[in-house]
Amino acid sequence: MTTHELRLATTKPLATQAERGHNRWHPDIAPALRIRPGDEVVLDTLDAADAQLRPGDGLDALGAVRLSRVHPLTGPIAVDGARPGDVLVVELLECVPAGIGYTVQIPGFGFLREQFPEPFLVRWQLDGNRAVSDDLPGVTLSAEPFLGTFGVAPSHDLLDRILVREQAVLDAGGMALPPDPTDALPGTGDVPARGLRTMPPRENAGNVDIRQTGIGTTLLLPVHADDALFSAGDGHFTQGEGETCGTAVEMAGTWRLRFDLRPGEAERTGQRRLRFSRETPGPRPAEAGPFHATTGISVDADGVNRAEDVTVATRDALREMLDHLVVERGFTRQQAYALCSVAVQLRISALPDVPNVSVTALLPLDVLDRP
Questions:
Q1: CB 58 within 8 A of CB 122
Q2: What pLDDT, on a 0 to 100 scale, did the predictor assign at position 345?
Q3: 23 — pLDDT class (breaks 50, 70, 90)
Q4: What DSSP string describes 318-339?
Q5: Each residue of 297-347: pLDDT tens digit?
Q6: Whole-structure pTM value
Q7: Of 91, 171, 231, 328, which shows the fewest CB atoms inside 10 Å?
Q8: Region (Disordered) spans which residues (predicted)?
Q9: What's the CA gap between 162 and 159, in Å, rounded?
Q10: Domains of the chain, with CATH numbers?
């Protein structure tokens, strides 16, 4: 096992250190680091706004934030031997948060965007264990750090399918962010014109904003492109279920991750979406004990984007859980359906990331007698 470092200056924009990161999803982005299965990586991540907000900034600074720079991602990290159909395993081992964070409300963004037309800013002081703010007095939040955005590169075929379906959302009058060369990193080749914006969750994971994917959790990502090409960013000190205003306690940070590979597992089990698991107790009583979770997005079984449709995302997460219980746990499909009804916890993990909401189906493993 080798430990690698992929470090950034977390107070400087990604464009000043672009060889270590990117802000679009595309399979042609060159890796910033190459590792082997079993290796660990210590990496820095910028905040979601790419260091555009500084300590002491007021509401006037929000008007100058360029959303085309969201989200700066550290990577890609190439994993030797990873091939489409494999599962990339990423263990989140440690996080050191930055000393400051923020929560913003931006007009036109967020789940209740029609009801909140004015900007708002909460500036947080982070001491490693808690967050407090004079902008939200009387509130103390405990540290529950996780990466809001992480994932692997899409294949060229998946990229094409996503571009078509998200354009269909726009054509139907829905909200989506099409490719935009403004501030795209890298700014060369096919990436500016066709690189996917990082806002929504997709098959490659992306901006999932799932609070339960914190330290002690193992991420299971189906691989779409050779070498997997994993990237991460958008660190959250903590977040409520749903991230309804569009931002969590956003922060920069330093993370330690361990990587492994399960050859052919996605193809064998039919895994199509991010899954994740925990073997140790989580930080909140509701998540005590081990669990296994599947995720869903607003794309139906026919591959059609149903923009901001929680029902479609919930069906998607349940479909993944049913497949897991049948293929990997040995239940019949009807047994699995019954188990979902009596034990699986359905959670709306993120609502504002158009066009896809993120839903999680979480199975507490202490209900199972079998391993």
A1: no
A2: 87
A3: very high
A4: HHHHHHHHHHTT---HHHHHHH
A5: 999 999 999 999 999 999 999 999 999 999 999 999 988 988 988 788 889
A6: 0.92
A7: 171
A8: 266-297
A9: 5
A10: 3-367 (2.60.120.580)
